[in-house]
Amino acid sequence: MDPLFFKLVRVVNLTARPFHERVGREHQLTLNEWRAMAVLATQPGLTATQVADLTGLDKMAVSRALAGLKRHQRVQRRGDPTDQRCSRLYLTAAGKALHATVGALGRQREAELFAGVDADELARLSATLDTLIRAVERAPDHGAADQTV
After folding, report:
1. Is the Cβ–Cβ distance between 101 and 27 less than 8 Å?
2. What gap in Å lies between CA 58 and CA 51, rounded to an integer?
3. Which of 8, 36, 74, 96 shows the smallest number of beta carbons within 10 Å?
4. Distances from the Cα of 79 to the Cαs of 43, 62, 64, 68, in angstroms?
5. CA gap 86, 81 in Å, rounded
6. What is the tens place of the pLDDT at every residue in 44-67?
7. Is position 77 within any domain?
8. Is residue 28 a contact partner of residue 58, using CB atoms and an 8 Å limit?
9. Would 53 be classed as within a structural domain?
10. What is the count of structural domains for the chain?
11. Among 52-56, 73-77, 100-104, 115-119, the range of highest mean pLDDT
């Protein structure tokens, strides 16, 4: 039997590949750009560090994702009026429109993937994943490079 961590990584990889093939190419959007957009759509005005924390991506991956989004005019930076050292990130109109389009495709894909899974089982899985995320965030080495991947 495969270890739990391997199963989690495998699920992510199996769902990421179709994203790139079905959505990413068509919209010139990487998976990490999508992850950053998804967070900014629900929480506008985050800093890049906050995007990294909420997506679980390292700061360099977030930096590249934000550069790609900015290059395609999907995100904009605004100065923070209370702290001149940092900037806040917001989706542009183009970014919001793309988020709506890709979000709808994502919900459709999620429905396809989970069609054979009982609603109660999905609710338990969601709760278990929330618990796991909290546990990982509390771990003493949270944010350190993981050597087991």
Report:
1. yes
2. 10
3. 8
4. 16, 18, 20, 19
5. 9
6. 999 999 999 999 999 999 999 999
7. yes
8. no
9. yes
10. 1
11. 73-77
* Spatial distance between the Cα atoms of 39 and 10, rounded to a whole number of angstroms: 23
Q: Which CATH number do you get for residue 43?
A: 1.10.10.10
- Dig out the tokens for 62 from the structure: 């977030």
45: left (phi over 0), alpha (psi -120 to 50) or beta: left
Amino acid 148: pLDDT: 41
Please give the full DSSP string across 57-115, using - where no structure is assigned: --HHHHHHHHHHHHHTT-EEEEEETTEEEEEEEEE-HHHHHHHHHHHHHHHHHHHHHTT
Residue 88 lies in a domain: yes
**pTM assigned to the model:** 0.82
> Residue 142: its pLDDT value, please?
64
Q: 3-state DSSP call for residue 48?
A: helix
Q: Domain span at residue 109?
A: 4-115
Q: Phi and psi at residue 143, in whole multiples of 5°?
A: 95, -15
